[in-house]
């Protein structure tokens, strides 16, 4: 099996049944904040776009590049479609002209012509990507197997392993979030949180690597790079141990320190071959890979200079002064708030958006989303639990394009600051991800179906429930206990085992007690 790196989470897989192009992303995403690194725009995308199959793992804009799919990917390619609870991904692809689909059933194998088998596992909780994330498993005719996990976080890897050894395991390792950079925190606290998140991302990926035991590990799906002057400090080129966007070389060096040396980095244009007998090789478009990464800042600066006209053009498109932000929000969002029973209760208070003038900290309008009264109104000076500050023109643009997912646009752009009282509240972001009736009703139904897990386990002198209240990860696998604190390494959530209280988010306490007390 041959794997050509095409940037970020994208790859071109050649099998006996033909080629599979995965997650092609080239154009800036999230209000021109994210760019793929290294620059992959100079690949022969018209040739790559003639792939036999297209796999788009989910709708995050660093995986679903509408402009690139429109211009460079053949509409006659066959789409391998994950089984998601909503039809959005299929609808978006059909709107671009794609018309051939293999609609997979999650975790069921499909055999393609030529003897190649594929399987897609679809994750479907409201916190998985934009209502969904997925992984692709491929078995070539000669028995070589690939797992493209990209940035999905399965709670159980056995579905991929029961069919035989994995020879190529591709997975995310770097951050893909806005925390802690945008939070209004002291620099030392922000650095400490960032360091913790960076280490947690490495540890989580290593857990997957140890579970899969693949012959070769490919770090993919990150990091993005930031080429706008205001966001450039987010790049990991300043020696900040709290930076959550380490590159592939930094991660591979860490893996080597953990005793894992079966790693392959894919630059755009790198070509790797893996075989069922465990052999593997790679050829890069550069002479010295480590030297190339040592010159990362130079590459970033050159890329930044090339992209300034594109960033300027994107910014020029954001302003829509004809839109009455408050009244439009009331018209479109208040009906959703009225039916968001579980989510609004989970938020449990008002959320404020302070809207500023372009490229300024001057607040020109403050709007409150009151999840107790289910109303949107101008700020009246009351206390709020969550506060966001962003440019008014960004909200104007979201309303102009009728964006239903502010997480997959505004929040991932990092073009805002945030403050909160108390713990992280997942319901806040769940709501702003579900600004359509279809999404909201699915999320409400998902939350309504959640039930406490009745099975307990014992670990390190403590008895507690086996399933994480967040996304049902098996804590016998992903749990780690230090000083009476349980951490779920799937997403880093924490509990005080003495009290059972969740230290990470409101409303997710667990059953727990000392094992001796349970025995008595």
Automatic annotation (TrEMBL):
PROSITE patterns: RIESKE. It holds the Pfam family Lactamase_B_3. Transmembrane segments: none annotated. GO terms for molecular function: 2 iron, 2 sulfur cluster binding; metal ion binding; monooxygenase activity; oxidoreductase activity, acting on paired donors, with incorporation or reduction of molecular oxygen. It comes from the Bacteria. GO terms for cellular component: cytoplasm. This is (2Fe-2S)-binding protein. It comes from Glycomyces terrestris.
